[in-house]
Amino acid sequence: MTDTPVTEDMNKRVAQYIQIRDKLRQMEDEFKQLKRPLLDIQEKLAGCIQQFMTANNLANLRTKAGSCYISTRHTATLADPEAFMEYVIANKQFDLLERRANSTAVKAFVKKTTQLPPGCNLNAISTVGVRRAGDPGPESE
Q: Helix (H, G, I), strand (E, B), or coil: what is residue 69?
């Protein structure tokens, strides 16, 4: 931090920022509470519709009110990362992997070598964070 004197205007702007952030959080909490009963009903209705579709072996359902469909989303997690990687490498099944760079590791690599790994970009996006006076730090945000 620098010893640049803070103007009264900046004190005011930071206080306004914190006041608005607090109000937005309050509004978000209130909205969550307001929508919870509707979300619960919606979830029960979805279960009812899905149960009907499953019982009737339907992938799609058309009604006067609208159409319904069953969609399935898959996720894959690693129970044993070492066994998985050994299998991928030994069997050359690299299509089982996603290709992306680990930004934390790339940042450390650049810090150590002062250059990027071949074929890699590293982007940094700066934003302004605002803490209330006396708050411990960004971890609490």
A: strand
Question: What count of residues does the chain have?
Answer: 141
CB 49 within 8 A of CB 68: yes
Q: How far is CA 118 from CA 103, 108, 110, in A?
A: 14, 15, 11
Mean pLDDT, the chain, whole residue set: 91
| Cβ atoms of residues 68 and 53 within 8 Å | yes
Query: Can you give the residue ranges of every domain in the chain?
Result: 7-72, 74-121
Neighbours of 46 (CB within 10 A): 11
The pLDDT tens digits of the residues spanning 30-88 come to 999 999 999 999 999 999 999 999 999 999 999 999 999 998 888 899 999 999 999 99
Collapsing DSSP to helix, strand or coil, 79 comes out as coil
Distance from C-alpha of 13 to C-alpha of 16, rounded to nearest angstrom: 5
3-state secondary structure of 67: strand
Q: Which two tokens stand for residue 73?
A: 């989303």
Alpha-carbon distances, residue 59 vs 19, 53, 72, 84, 103 (angstroms): 49, 7, 11, 34, 41
CA–CA separation, 48 vs 57, rounded Å?
14
Kindly report the pTM of this predicted structure: 0.60
